[in-house]
Every structure is written in structure tokens, then in C-alpha cells.
TrEMBL record:
Residues 164-174 have a biased composition (Low complexity). This is Uncharacterized protein. The chain crosses the membrane at residues 21-48, 60-79, 100-122, 128-147. Keywords: Membrane, Transmembrane, Transmembrane helix. InterPro entries: DUF6328. Residues 153-174 are annotated as: Disordered.
Amino acid sequence: MTSEMAGQRNESEQERADRNFVELLQGARVAVTGVQVLFAFLLTVPFSSGFSRLDQADRWLYYAALVSAAIASICYIAPTAQHRVLFRQGRKETLVRRSNLYGIFGALALAVSMTTSTMFVIDYLFQATLAWITAGVLAALALWTWFAQPGLTRNGQSSDRSSAEGNSVSSSED
């Protein structure tokens, strides 16, 4: 078994930090597009004719959706902005750690924004009960797929079938 197959790469710490940072940015690119579309949509909602008819509860839902989309945008943009400020300062490992945390916070904020946005629209179109049920299912799905399941895998409490069969390639750095 080669060292790469065993989860070890033949790279320096700087090369690993560079690779990790590029991988983090690539992951953020996927999410940031969705955040930008959602945020742009949310920014236009108050200017529609029906917005004035919303009750206070729906206005608070809108507020939560809008602010959490803004927070997600800030978190997903932060690694790129910090990279520009810290360029050639030899702080890539610090930037990688921060970027990972910003990615987690951004994903949490995105989950809140998606859930509250959906709840907001469903409440407007149908009824509060259906909105609450749908939001609960969406929140649970996001929390499970984005955080709980990988958290269990990370802590060794869960494994995929390929891991159990010994067919997976793992890396202690990812």
C-alpha cells in the first residue's frame, strides 16, 4: 500500500496548506452562488406590492432570512478578502483554519436563510402549520447532511459502506 493510499500525502506543510486553502475556496464557490441568488431575491421582496400586507410574524421571518443570507455572504467571502490582506505574509495555515470556520458559520447561516425563506413563502401561500412543518423538515435535513452526519463520521461513530470494506481513501488533513 502506498503512503497516499494510507492517507498520507508526500507534501510539505506549506503545500498541504495551499492545497487545503484551494479546496476550501472551491467548496465555497458552490455555496456562494446560491447565497448570492437568495440574497438578491430577498433584497427585492420588500419592494413588491404584497409586502405591505404581511403580518408582523412574516416580517420577522423575512428579517431572519435576509440577515442570515447577509451573514452567509460575509462568511463565504471572508477567506478571499483575508487572503488578499494576508498575501505573502506566511500565514496560510492560519487562513486555512479561519476559512474552515467561516465555511461552517456560512453553512449554518445559509441553512437558517433557506429554512426561513421557505417558511416565509409557504406561510404566505398556504398556512402557518404547513410552513412550520416544511421548515422543520428542511432544517433537520440541512443539519443532518451538512453537520451531524459528517460529524459522526469524523468522530469515528459512523462509516460508509466503502470504509467498512476497506475501499476508501482517507486523508487526515481533509
